[in-house]
Amino acid sequence: MTNLFYKPDGAWVGDLIPFYKDGSFRLFYLHDWRDNKKIHGEGTSWFELRTSDFVHYEEVGEKLKHGSVSEQDLNCYTGSIIEAHGEYHLFYTGLNPNPEFVEDGVPLQCVMHAVSTDMESWQKIPEDTFYSDGIQYERHDWRDPFVFWNEEAGEYWMLLAARNKEGPSRRRGSIGLCASKDLKSWEIRQPFWNPKMYVTHECPDLFQIGEWWYLVYSTFSERFVTHYRMSKSLSGPWTAPRNDAFDARAFYAAKTWSDGNKRYAFGWDPSKENENDYGDWQWAGNLVVHELVQEQDGTLTVRVPETVSHHFSNKQAAKWDSRIGEWEESEGRIEAAANETYSCISAGFMPETCKISAELSFSEGTRGCGIMLRASEDLDEAYYIRLEPIHNRLVFDMWPRREQGEMQWHIKGDHPHAVELEVPIELQAGTVYNIEIVVENSVCVVYLADQVAMTTRLYNLKTGSWGCFVQEGRAVFEQASISVPN
Hints:
It is an enzyme of class 3 (hydrolase). By secondary structure, the protein is mostly beta strands.
């Protein structure tokens, strides 16, 4: 089925565990039924998706079935898969909130093991289950095992989302480390990384490109985001690039995998309560995939997967229409000078599923410019994808900014954009930046300059036009177009 941002019928996509085999990405994921426990009962299982192009997905169904209410793995949470010794080894988190699996009032977490010869059926090995020893690490945060072969050490290593026993409560998060020779017995060791910054580091992931190692993890402490660190050695030091995230608030728990040529990050765009722009973010949502690219200095940039971009093969140039302010139009180009004001222009109707592309540049001193989405006929309501050169960032904004109220203090002027949806990027006057915006229903993913991505939701404004805008400055938009699938 064609579904760029996959979501199962009646359920949602949680943390993804990617693997590549036989020309296809095997995307295991936590299947979230949410409030349908009366129908589906308690527990979380791993389901599986398969895709070779991130456009067409095959839902394979439940692959790692959760245990009963009397078993530790009533909830089968995040983990990893590794091929070794002629088998596939699946490591996952087991959690059961029922009293017999609770210690000091908090459910225990543990690492559990299953094996398969073909990745079609999995056999659990309960005797391989192990918990934190409660000495170095807490016993209630011991999850998301990521297993890899450490060639230098000659053993398997397991990274975990863990918490130290000592230290300030909200800074005990560490990436725990265990080691094994046989994938059955594990030695608990000192933390792999212990920065003393966060509550915990969820969904750890590790990979190498050339001389660089990359450590990936997600946090909910200072902000909800997937970070990465880089080092030329597994022993560190692990340094942070200027932009240390793959996206912003609406792309979480990302894990990566390669097809042998390109590497991709697989995360989820959270839904919002009551499918409302003003609702709270929720756990789980729609699948979102970014391509990761290593730059010359070792840093990672993010771009739209090539197959997704090519999916939008029916391309139409912008059809300039209603506007505010003065616009100068020539073939393939439109420009506005709004040095002391705001100007915007409609480019035509925006379909529910589409890709918007443009090349834009701005003059020195410009305070903001970008793309409007689903704008109303009078251009008073819209979503805004805005470049802010003065702050060197890409942001998401919408008007109106809150659900109710007409008074001046109801506008949310103290929130000049969606503060959790901002991405740093160096912006220079006179430079041309390509922007690609992929929209399917409520999911919207923005890619700027083949460097950064910003995912969000578009709920309340269902239809409208797309267009361009500039605020207090001058901007040029070239090759502006909208594409839909054939």
